[in-house]
Structure formats: structure tokens, C-alpha cells
Amino acid sequence: MDYAIRFIKLGVGGEWESSCIKESTIRLGYISPFHEESLQGDWTSVRNFWLTERKGKERVASNDMTQIRAFYEASEKDIWVTFYQRKMYWCRASAKVELLDDGSRIRRVLGHWSCLDQNGEKITIENLDGRISKVQAYRGTICSVELPEYLDRKIKAIPNPDVKLAKDNLDLLLISIEDLIKGLWWYDFELLVDLVFTKSGWHRYSVLGKTEKDLDLDLYSPTTEKRAFAQVKSSTSQREVSEYIEKFDKYDNYDEFFFIFHTCNEELDEVSYKDKKYHVIGGRSLARLIVTTGLVQWLIDKRT
Questions:
Q1: Which top-rank group of organisms is this from (predicted)?
Q2: Which end of the chain has fewer CB atoms < 10 Å from its terminal CB, N or C?
Q3: Does residue 214 sit in the same domain as residue 263?
Q4: What radius of gyration, in Å, describes the C-alpha atoms of the chain?
Q5: d(CA 97, CA 72)
Q6: Based on the domain organization, do 9 and 152 belong to the same domain?
């Protein structure tokens, strides 16, 4: 990398975060009368000012001067990052430093702040290494970040080789799980679905209208206080899914509807049913649920 990546805290307690992101600027406090000296690289004067402000504490004054200097001297190639509303924003900034009336200084962002990687995916705290996001606790204003190469790859959407290998292996596992599910006896499949709901926090109130290879579940979530109706089918079709959703719409005592299927001999359009209250689950989506609820070993044992 021929550029640096720096974190900048936009104001005390993040008071300038919203305005800087909206106005496409980075902004530095550290109010002092030495703007022109900073532009000219007279860092001795800046350091002496802050040495007086910090009552002779040389280490603290040197740290102040280092942060101010970074703001003035950082290359236009360098990347600035900050955090706002649990997302990481990044930008590059013009070299020109402007003095505002209140004594703070700004650099104009080249383009705009972005919370997206180069594939258009949001960069959130949840999908960042904790060694990056922990910089939010930094008490100063500007600092370097740990793992700059990692963060550079993150912004450029270049996959980590270890993560790519893990994802490839997960894809293979999901394919295997799908095949194992298809070989389940219908009773074992219904038991598996019951376990998935239990491990997901749903409580089963009752089993309704149970017939062979056809199971209806009345479910309740104590965390959301929602009621759900679940239809479990060993085999199904697009037409049958649509019919059950029409039937569900006639009920007013359920908040959500789950349709979980075992096998479908046609291409089932699960995506069109992605609604807050409709959940059509089978194939790969069901395989992922089995992984996330920790039921892989149960499935393997059942099919062994």
C-alpha cells in the first residue's frame, strides 16, 4: 500500500459526524491560532503552543501536534474512516485545509463519504474485525488503524483467502445437508423442523390437524409475543404454496406464516414470498437454518 488509513473522530462525542458526512468534509477541532504556521510546516510553534496548553506535559503535547500534523499533511491518496450509526464510513480528502470561523478546520472530501465497499455492500460494525471497530473508543481525534491491509481489502471487497476457503467449504456443506434432508423419512423430517423452531426460540402451542406427511404447528415467540402458523410438507408444488398462503390470509389471529417443505419437483419461487409475514423455507434456506441452529450432527446421525 502506498497510502495510509487513518481513523478520525468527528467532533467531541461525534457531534460533527452527521454534518461532515452530509457536507462531504472531514473536520478537526484543536482550536489554536497557528493555522498559517501549520500550512507552512512550522510544527515547533504548534508543539510549543500545545505544550503550554498541556501545562508542560511533553508526551501529551507531542501527541496533539502529531494528530494536527496528520490532518494537514495526509496525502490525497490516504483513506479516512469514521463510524456513524453502526456503519463504517470512508473517504479520501482534498489536500487543501480551510479555517472555519469557529477556529476548527476542514478538508473537502474527494467525492463523498461512503459506507459501502466497492461491490456496493454496507460495511457495518457487525461484519468488521473487532480490532478495527474498537478504535471508536480512542480518546483522541486522529490515529492509525490496526490491520490496514485487512481494511483496505474490506473497502475494495477483496475476499480474505481464509474466509473465501471457509465460505467455499460452507457451500459444500450446505449441498450435502440438502441431500441428507431429501433422504429423511417424513416423520424424521417433521421432527427436524420441530427442533429448528425450538432452537430458534419458538414455543409450540399445539399440533393441528396432523395427518400422515402433513403437519401444522401453532407457534408462539415469547421474545416478540407473535403467533405463527407453520405448515410442514414432505413434498409440495408452487401451486400448493400459493393455496396455503391464500388460506393463511383468512386468519386474523396469526402474525406470521411458515411453509417448510421437504421436496419440490419444480423450481419453487421462494423469493417472491419474502415478506414480513410469509416465510417459504426449503432447500438451501432450510440447510442454512440447520447449520445456524446447530442441528448438523443430529441430521448426520439420523441418516447414518
A1: Bacteria
A2: C
A3: yes
A4: 28
A5: 7
A6: yes
* Boundary (domain end) residue, out of 156, 190, 205: 156
Tell me the pLDDT of the chain (304 aa) as tens digits: 899 999 999 999 899 999 999 999 999 998 888 999 999 999 999 999 999 999 999 999 999 999 999 999 999 999 999 999 999 999 999 999 999 999 999 999 999 999 999 999 999 999 999 999 999 988 899 999 999 999 999 999 998 889 899 999 999 999 999 999 999 998 899 899 999 999 999 998 876 555 545 568 889 999 999 999 899 988 888 888 888 888 888 878 889 999 999 888 777 766 666 677 889 999 899 999 999 999 999 999 999 9
C-alpha grid cell, residue 299: 441430521
User: How many distinct structural domains can be found in the chain?
Assistant: 2
91 and 198, same domain (yes or no): no
Cell 471457509 belongs to which residue? 166
The span from the CA of 198 to the CA of 219, in Å, is 10
